[in-house]
TrEMBL record:
Gene Ontology CC annotation, any one: cytoplasm
DNA repair is among the record's keywords: yes
UniProt keywords, alphabetically: ATP-binding, Cytoplasm, DNA damage, DNA repair, DNA replication, DNA-binding, Nucleotide-binding, SOS response
Family annotation (SUPFAM superfamilies): P-loop containing nucleoside triphosphate hydrolases
Protein location: Cytoplasm
Protein name: DNA replication and repair protein RecF
Function of the molecule: The RecF protein is involved in DNA metabolism; it is required for DNA replication and normal SOS inducibility. RecF binds preferentially to single-stranded, linear DNA. It also seems to bind ATP.
PANTHER family, per the entry: DNA REPLICATION AND REPAIR PROTEIN RECF
Single GO molecular function: single-stranded DNA binding
UniProt binding sites for ATP: 30-37
Species per Swiss-Prot/TrEMBL record: Candidatus Doudnabacteria bacterium RIFCSPHIGHO2_01_FULL_49_9
């Protein structure tokens, strides 16, 4: 899938944008604060209905405007247009969604597109709390499996109901059975994803940072992929759970660690190396979704930061195999010589984006 057109109105610092794109590299260059990340957020929001972590819906409005709109046209097997209209009504944002001109629900809208984004703060995936890593696993699996999405929702509800039962010192058997049922499915999905990543991680990473050697992911399950074993673990923990009023077994305690030559990477590798591993995980996310027949778009924000010239060149060479990739940089001159002839370069200044002609063009 690739984006053919993007139209923005009153989104972030952009009053109006009307842009067309081709497959291949799309480079957005400009100083920090010019709006490069804002533009990627608009594309990400238009294809996923998800905002960047620090954004509230009201913050997407430009200045004191009362509405914003984004329309993107993508091509996979056929053209599909995605339209988002957001209007302030009585101080609250109201969303209207359309695909191919027809008003749709959030669920219907999200079925048609797939997008993956790398942000500088994604390094937190490896260095911050286990919740970040569980969120990564969930985002990947929810994107490709309606069964996982439904099961995760049911598990979350059941976990809350078990918490109420713990507080009331009530019978837990009913909730334990449901928790084991849903939790074992979640654990199975996550375990399979971890195995997929491990089989391909070293190969993908060698195209970005060849000197790292063997890298592996170790998945720590808080429950079990076998329903009966999951239930036994809950039963063994019941007295402790009643005492502490919390559920100590289940995928809400899952985590994973990354190892380099059997040594935990956090506190050991440099930020540039951690960036390379995080980027490799995002690329493996793309490959995993492709194994389910999806064709996700890649958005890479400030991806070259902390990479030397050799790693910048290796990364660009590897990304040539992708149908379309949007990348931002504040230092175009550092990568210009490595860009293929067909790369599209856009200059971002405050409130505008203009195409940089290729050599020989007007």
């Amino acid at each position: 899938m690739y984006i053919k057109k993007a139209n923005f109105q009153n989104f972030r610092n952009f009053s109006k944008l009307d842009l067309t794109f081709r497959p291949g590299f799309v480079i957005l260059s400009g100083p920090n604060g010019a709006g490069k990340t804002n533009f990627l957020e608009g594309l990400y929001f238009s294809l996923s209905l998800a905002r960047f972590p620090t954004s509230a819906l009201s913050q997407l409005l430009r200045g004191k405007e009362q509405f914003f709109s984004i329309k993107t046209t993508t091509l996979s097997n056929e053209d599909i247009s995605f339209e988002i209209f957001c209007e302030q009504r009585e101080g609250r944002p109201f969303l209207q969604l359309k695909t191919n001109g027809q008003v749709v629900t959030r669920g219907q809208y999200a079925r048609h597109a797939s997008v993956i984004c790398f942000l500088p703060e994604d390094l937190n995936l490896l260095t911050h709390s286990p919740a970040n890593r569980r969120r990564f696993l969930d985002e990947v699996l929810v994107s490709c499996s309606p069964e996982y999405r439904h099961t995760l929702s049911q598990y979350t509800k059941t976990l809350k109901q078990r918490s109420v039962a713990l507080e009331k010192q009530a019978t837990l058997e009913v909730w334990d059975e449901q928790l084991a049922n849903f939790g074992s499915v979640i654990t199975g999905f996550r375990k399979n994803l971890a195995e997929f990543i491990n089989k391909r991680l070293e190969d993908v990473l060698s195209n970005i940072s060849s000197e790292l050697g063997k890298i592996e992911l170790k998945y720590h399950a808080g429950g079990d992929s076998d329903k009966d074993n999951f239930g036994k673990k809950l039963a063994l923990a019941r007295a402790r759970d009643l005492q502490r009023l919390t559920t100590s077994v289940g995928p809400h305690h899952d985590d994973f660690e990354m190892f380099n030559e059997r040594r935990a990477i956090v506190g050991y590798l440099s930020r540039g190396q951690l960036r390379a591993i995080t980027l490799a995980l995002k690329i493996l996310e793309k490959q995993y979704l492709e194994s389910f027949g999806l064709s996700p778009l890649m958005l890479l924000d400030d991806v070259f930061s902390e990479f030397d010239t050799k790693h910048q060149r290796h990364l660009l060479e590897f990304l040539k195999g992708f149908e379309q990739v949007f990348l931002t940089t504040a230092h175009l001159e550092e990568i210009k010589e490595f860009l293929p002839a067909g790369a599209q370069v856009y200059i971002v200044s405050d409130g505008s984006i203009s195409s940089l002609p290729r050599p020989g063009e007007g």
